[in-house]
Write a structure and sequence with these properties.
The protein has 397 residues and is α/β, with parallel strands linked by helices. Helix content is 51%, strand content 11%. The chain contains 18 helices and nine strands. Strands 1, 2, 3, 4, 5 and 6 form a six-stranded parallel sheet that branches. The chain has a three-stranded parallel sheet with strand order 7-8-9. Strand 4, helix 6 and strand 5 form a beta-alpha-beta unit. Helix 6 runs parallel beside helix 9. The chain is globular and about 60 Å long.
Length: 397
C-alpha cells in the first residue's frame, strides 16, 4: 500500500510539473507574439456608458487601458461606430477619435496613436499600446471622399464599407439578405460607380477595405475593384453558423486568393446558430429596462449590453464554449491556410462572447488552446497578430 501511495504521489508531482511547464510555455508564446486585434468598440462604449477608458472598468466593459496590457495586446484597432440613424455621423466619428486622442495625451507612457508599421514597431518596443482606428460603416464619410481622406489623416486605417445599414453607394449584408433573388435582380445592389471610387481611394490612401457587414454583391464588387489585400475585420464562417454576417465558402476562398485576412468575431450569435433564440428570450424578459435606457438616448446595442452587465450569471449561462469559436478558426485554416485568419473580437460591441472569453484578459487562453490543438508557435504568432500586420503593410506596397 505504501508503494502505491508513493507511486501516486510521484505521478501527481510529475503531472503538476508538466502542467507548470505547459502554463509557462503558452504564456511565453503569448508574450512573444505581437498581439493585434482588429475590432474593439470601447470608444463607443465609453461614450454611451459615460466612462473613461484609462480607469479600471472591470465589471463595466470588456476592456480598459490597463487590461489591454494585462492581456498582452500590443496593437488595437479601435472601432469608430454609430448606427445608420445617427445625425451627422462624420462629426460623431471625430468625437470618438477625439476621445482616444485625449486618452493618449493623458497616458503618453501607455498608449500611442500610430500612423504606420514603423510607428507600431516603435510603440511596441517601448511597451506602449499601438492604437489605430477603423471606421465601422461607410455612412460616416457622408458620401464625401474628402472626409474619407480626413479620417485617414487622423489615424483611420480601415473602413467597413457598410454597417448593417446600406449607404447610397453600397448595400449591406442585412439589406441584401432580406431580399429574395428576384428582388435583388430588380434592385441596384452592390457597389455603385461612386462606391468603386471609394474603394480605389482607400487603395490610394493605404486604408484597408473592410468587408465585414457588406452584402454578397458588395463583397464581390469590392474584391473585383480593389488592388490590395482586403480585411474582414470581425466575421466568421457561414457554413458553421449560417447568419448574414458570416462568410460563405466562396467568399472565404476569395479572401485567401486576394491575400487578405479574416478576423474572428467573438459574438456568440455569429459562433453558435442556436444562441440567438436563447439571447432573445433573455432580452425579452428585460425589455422594459432596455426601453428605459433607450429613452435616455442610449443606442439600442449598448442598452442591451448594459442589461447583460446587470445580469452576468444569466448571460453567461446561455453562452457557447470557446471551442465553438475555435472551430471557425480551424474551418478557415483548413480552407485557405493559416496566413489568412486572426482576431477581431468585437469586445465592447457585443452582448455575449464565449463563456471562457469574459474580457480582453482572456486572450492568453486562445494561445493556450491553439498550442493544444497542434498549431506551431509560428502559426500562433500569425493568428494572434502577424496576419493582420501583414495586410496592413501590404496597403503601401
Amino acid at each position: 500500500m505504501k508503494y502505491l501511495i508513493f507511486a501516486l504521489c510521484c505521478f501527481a508531482s510529475v503531472a503538476k510539473a508538466q502542467n507548470n511547464t505547459d502554463n509557462k510555455r503558452y504564456k511565453k508564446v503569448h508574450q512573444r507574439a505581437i498581439m493585434a486585434d482588429s475590432h474593439n468598440d470601447l470608444l463607443t462604449a465609453s461614450i454611451e456608458k459615460n466612462l473613461r477608458i484609462d480607469q479600471d472598468l472591470r465589471g463595466k466593459t470588456h476592456s480598459d487601458l490597463q487590461r489591454f496590457k494585462e492581456a498582452g495586446v500590443d496593437v488595437q484597432i479601435f472601432s469608430v461606430w454609430c448606427d445608420g440613424d445617427k445625425k451627422q455621423p462624420y462629426a460623431w466619428a471625430n468625437r470618438e477619435i477625439d476621445t482616444l486622442y485625449a486618452v493618449a495625451a493623458r497616458n503618453p507612457d501607455k498608449i500611442q496613436i500610430v500612423q504606420d508599421f514603423t510607428d507600431i514597431k516603435k510603440a511596441v518596443k517601448k511597451n506602449k499600446l499601438a492604437a489605430l482606428f477603423g471606421v465601422e460603416g461607410g455612412h460616416m464619410i457622408e458620401g464625401d471622399l474628402n472626409k474619407l481622406e480626413a479620417l485617414y489623416n487622423r489615424g483611420v486605417r480601415y473602413m467597413t464599407l457598410t454597417w448593417n445599414n446600406s449607404t447610397e453607394w453600397a448595400t449591406s449584408a442585412m439589406k441584401e439578405s432580406s431580399l429574395n433573388n428576384s428582388t435583388q435582380q430588380a434592385q441596384n445592389i452592390g457597389l455603385t460607380p461612386f462606391g468603386k471610387q471609394v474603394v480605389k481611394k482607400m487603395n490610394d490612401l493605404g486604408m484597408m477595405v473592410d468587408l465585414s457587414h457588406v452584402g454578397e454583391k458588395t463583397f464581390w464588387d469590392a474584391i473585383q475593384t480593389t488592388t490590395k489585400p482586403v480585411l474582414v475585420s470581425h466575421s466568421n464562417a457561414y457554413t458553421l453558423c449560417p447568419v448574414f454576417r458570416n462568410l460563405k465558402d466562396d467568399q472565404i476562398d476569395a479572401v485567401g486568393n486576394n491575400g487578405g485576412v479574416i478576423q474572428l468575431n467573438f459574438y456568440s450569435a455569429f459562433i453558435d446558430s442556436s444562441f440567438k433564440k436563447r439571447e432573445n428570450a433573455f432580452l425579452l424578459n428585460k425589455q422594459a429596462k432596455i426601453d428605459s435606457l433607450v429613452a435616455t438616448g442610449m443606442q439600442k446595442e449598448y442598452a442591451q449590453s448594459m442589461i447583460v452587465d446587470m445580469y452576468k450569471e444569466e448571460s453567461i449561462a446561455i453562452q457557447p464554449p470557446m471551442e465553438m469559436l475555435l472551430a471557425h478558426l480551424d474551418y478557415i485554416v483548413n480552407r485557405i491556410g493559416v496566413d489568412h485568419v486572426g482576431m477581431g473580437s468585437d469586445f465592447d460591441g457585443i452582448s455575449a462572447s464565449p463563456k471562457e472569453l469574459t474580457d480582453v484578459t482572456s486572450y492568453p487562453l486562445i494561445t493556450k488552446a491553439l498550442l493544444e490543438r497542434g498549431y506551431s508557435k509560428k502559426d500562433v504568432y500569425k493568428i494572434m497578430g502577424g496576419n493582420l500586420l501583414r495586410v496592413m503593410k501590404a496597403q503601401h506596397n
